[in-house]
User: Fold these one by one.
Assistant:
Number 1:
Amino acid sequence: FLLLAVACGFQGMGQAFSSGSIEVLEIESYIKENGEEGIPKISSTLAVLECAGLASGSLCGGFLGYFDPTYTLLLTVCILLEFLLLTLTVLFVKETWEKPMDGTPAVQLKNQIRSLFSSIQHSKIVMTILAMSAMLGLGLCTIETYWQPTLKLYLPEHLSWVFGIINCLGYFGASLGSKGAEQLWKYSHASEETGRSMMGYWSLRLLLPFIILSLGLCRNIFLFIFLFVLTYTVLGAGNLFENTILHASIENSHRSSMLSLSSLSVRSGAILTSVL
């Protein structure tokens, strides 16, 4: 348990670096070239790329875990991929500083936190999204913890390798939802009116718990798989609306910290679910 806790701590640090920083570098570069009208497109593209990686990883992980129940082979592949990722990041991710920052690191951190919370207090949209992120974490943690044990009740033991395929289909659904929401955003002219974009966002987020409830009550394998994929499709669509609205509502100087704060809100929801 202690080793697992340490590993999760390092994983959390890694996710903080990637979720708040790498994505922001891409988005700010794209906004600089195409303006804020391009936020839905770059958000959708990043979401599809991420889902493609998660889908292929789920597929490979499912088969590797099936052929080697000790997970030694799977963990070895994971370690090699981490080293490859680190090497690629060092070689290809270049960060340019707009201007030198004043003060010591401690002062910079203090100013950043003060400025960050000031921007949250003055934006109802950002406050809403952060609160919704915690609720989203509650739902996601429930699905990720219980979907495999639930499906295992109705699935023969020799078919356990299909878990990777089903997980892959879920991420494919998230990609589909993201691209579909990008088109919906474009044709509904959501960027022209805040109320319209928030209405789409609320509709997608409020639909999610009803699908999760249906998933929990489902007793048919094929219907369960369909509802599982539908859950991630609606999740992907909602994420596109959320990311577009959030990025349009924050300044470049707060973008990385705000994404990390949003990620932290999702995890706070997951912690609450675990306690419950």
Number 2:
Amino acid sequence: ALAWLDVWRPERALELARASLREAELQVQATEIAYTTARATQADVLAARIMLGLLRDEVALREDEGQIARSKLSRWIGPDAAQRPLPADLPPWSPPAPLHEMLASLRRHPLLDAEAKRLVVAEDEVELARQAYKPDWRAGVAYGYRPDFSDYMSVNVAVDLPVFAASRQDRNLGAKLAEKTQAEQSREDVLRQEEADLRLHWLGWQRLQARIAQFDSEILPQSQQRIEAAVTAWQAGQGSLAAVLDARRMALDNQMKRLNLVTEAARYRLALQYFAGDSL
């Protein structure tokens, strides 16, 4: 899922760059016409052309990023499937469960389940080591057939006495107790790390939702209004071409920033689905 997201982001950035490129091409044409009528200077024409060249380089950069990301995606789904067109929008995700519920269910995560099984094995080995302190009683019955002699039957009883415990059982039990302690600490360490990561991603997703909403309600609309105002002022001879180019450049930057926020929020949401064990 993360590899898929690495493909989606540069393709959406490529769409933004191409849209800005088309606007820059029109801006160059308008500037050149204005230059022939003495309404623009040669510096204005050069500035518009430089802006156009930079956007062309931006398009080429995003194309390269997209191809590299698709190559990495092919590791997971194959080269043919990795070249399929991607949707313009991300899948609709519902908000994650409350943090306390996700933390409670985290203990059932397969990663922690594996650690719990290691601890159970270590506890069983400790119990086996303790059993070595107890005498081991054994009994056996044997029947012997001898053609030239009388048959016989024997009964054997044996007991192992745990002597020299300090040099044998104590060492063995101590080693098993140490392994159990290590398994307990390992499970606790993994649990704390996973809980910290879960909190980080849950809070990150919540925080980015507010930032994305601000871009949608304030920053992007105002960026577009600034472009329109700058173009109107320049066409009326009351503004400069530099103001128009600066407004367009800032609008593209803001759109790219929003795209980065959306992508980062998607990464957080995918991580939360992994912690919850949900299907992607």
Number 3:
Amino acid sequence: MMVKAFLSTSFKANPQRVLTVGCYMAQATNSWELPIDTGAVPEDGSEFDVIVVGGGPGGSSAAGYLAMAGKTVLLIEKKVWPRDKICGDAVGGKSLSHVKRLGVKDILESSPHFRVTGIKFSSPKGNVVRVALPEEDVQKLEAGYALPRIQFDHLLFDRCQNLVRENGGMVIQDGEVKEILFDDGNGGEDPGKGSGNSRHSKGVVVTIGGRDGENKTYFTKEIIGAGGYQCPVARAVVKDSFSEVLVDNLHYCGGYREYWTNVGGCSSNVGDIEIHFVDSIVPGYFWLFPVSENVVNVGIGMVIGLLKKEKKKLKALQKDVIENHPLFKERFADAKMVEGSGKGWQLPFGSPRKKEKNQPRRASMNGIRLVGDAASLVDPFSGEGVGNALVCGELAANHILEGKSPEQYQNEMWSLLGPELTNSYRMQKLSRKKWLLNWFVRKASKKPKIQEMMTEMIASKEAQENLHSPWFMFKTLMF
């Protein structure tokens, strides 16, 4: 008899059919400001090929790819759309191939967004260098975008939930996963061992729909955990099953962002995003990411372990930079913060851990795969996580379709993303040295060859390796 994974859930009656945004509905003018009708809640005891926990980019993409391959999927989202996701809002070139294959790129380009053509960096002493994104990618509209996650996630989820339902699956909103249990039939053996297509697979127990919800149970053999840095599936795999470290503050970043209008130099919908290594913030940085015409995501980030050590508060640091820093106080003189937009969050970095066999940390066990933030895959230098979430969303889907083992998923994920994440971690550690930042940015601002090298490194993983070749760097910087 087949042993199946099972989800015990609770929910409010047809939550996705209830318009919970009240009078806001009358004011909504954009599609991403509207609720998404995801159909009826599945009946108690329903069985699916795969259950995906989390409706962000990683979960939506995994569900979409599986559905297109003919799998019946249950896609569970904790909140009710429209919902926000605190983020820097950049969507890099890596993301766009997935956005295109999932059928969202044309929709995205027809909605308001900022098209990125370059990145500006400044050093603690105020030197500035601009790095152009690859011209070929810019011309093909594949260099990158910036747009609010409330908008991007809505477009992606809506498309993927339609793919899920068109292929026999179902979708639940207001589905908070509370608890997970396992029954993999291993008779007490290591739960991480065994084939991904074993007849004895993981089981989970989930509570969906809030405190007053009704419990329901669903069945599956395969689970994808994509519920962000607090993903209950990740907690059950990493912490509860293997007693490993889920949150390491030296590999987690604290982020804080606000939306501003009328910021000087940010009135267009095409141009540069900005990363500034401000003296009072290092180790960390201050960013300006325009997201549409005259709207800017303004934020600050720092590794949590270092933030606690220096006893700093991100909101206060950002306020001081905006009001007093010579590079920014004039640019913000006539600017206005969007009321209620100041929010903080955590980013689980994909930086390699010492003495860790499963890099960056465990992301799989029999019948379960973690993706995106749930797998701790945010870039340690740029803070961008959407691209890696989409990459491993597709990877998890493919491994389920091909019946590969959890060890194969873990190894291939790190083989695919590890070199880039490792280089970014090295760059993050270098950026903690103010004197080095000052010297490098000043040198780069005067040498087009260095700017070309940096452009190449954005587009090429092979070129990124040059950053850590002492001889290459010596030749480039000194001659």
Number 4:
Amino acid sequence: MPPGKFGKMKDVVFENIFLDETVLVTGHTGFIGGWLTTWLIYLGAKVVGVSLEPSTKPSLYELNDLKNYIIDYKKDIRNYAEIESIIKEHKPKFIFHLAAQPLVLKSYIEPLETFSTNVMGTVNILEIIRNLNSASIFINFTSDKCYENKEIGHAHNENDKLGGHDPYSASKASSEIITNSFRQSFFENQKNHVCVSTIRAGNVIGGGDWAENRLIPDCIRHFNKNQNITIRNPEAIRPWQHVFEPISGILLLAYTMAKNPKKFNESWNLGPNSTNITVKEVVEKVIRKWGKGSWKAFDNNDFELHEANILKLDSSKIENKLNWMQCLTIDEAIDYTVQWYKKFIEKNDSMFNFSIEQIENYLTKANLLNVQWIEKYHV
């Protein structure tokens, strides 16, 4: 399946805006970055990936054979000279910045790596595109954890105060502040035409995630070993969503930014308004879909690191301004996720075809639900 095949036949929602365009994805070997890269291949983009080697084995990057579909660089975004050389050579029109240390618990163990990657990595990319003035669209994918969370049940909107108790959350808040500073200082003038936005996404699930200390991967590992799933905080509430939801949002945002330069250069929440359910409820739904399994609570006396109990997002801004909407219920999101892992277990080879099939199924549903993407929303 050569790159570009799908975009020429299938891209209805985004009007072929990514077809044959050079798109840089940092963090393409990660879970969300791997799915974004797979989508862009499907849409016919010329993808340039910049990332470290996959941090897990297996990984979505390897299982989807992404290196065979893209220009693939294993580089550290903290290396300014190497990243500058790549951007200078390929001159991407779109840059999606996802490279990061993405785990809260790891940020307690390795705060220096977390801050240097998530903060200075972002500074490097922005400074490079400022000096080269070649890219048209830059979107920084941060996190819902960038907000100062007082855990009072309030759904955070884009005007809320940024903050962060743990190093990961603080680094993402810093990345947001840095991006906004560059936007106001350098990209809102007549000399530099780069359009800059950020996405603050809720808790993401989906097939192909193998990270340690993450809920769904932990479930799958325990299922395979016939062990109880241990949950740190069963009553914690999170804005759960399938990985396809924020990817559809980030692509829609890039599309609208390209159609209307400067109009949508803002920060955007991207999460569900209706699936803020507990960790325990998610695990029980996964167990039912999988067909077996059980869970037990972690002894909190052995866990002293801070994690928020309540985290909610208000995504009304992107819904109202861009007509984006969540397409999958939490049960459908879990069904997509379980199907992917079961397919992997049944047939341990390239998952690219099945991943494309899931994308097509989602887009079929999205096209039916989001008619305004095609008929009503003309920028």
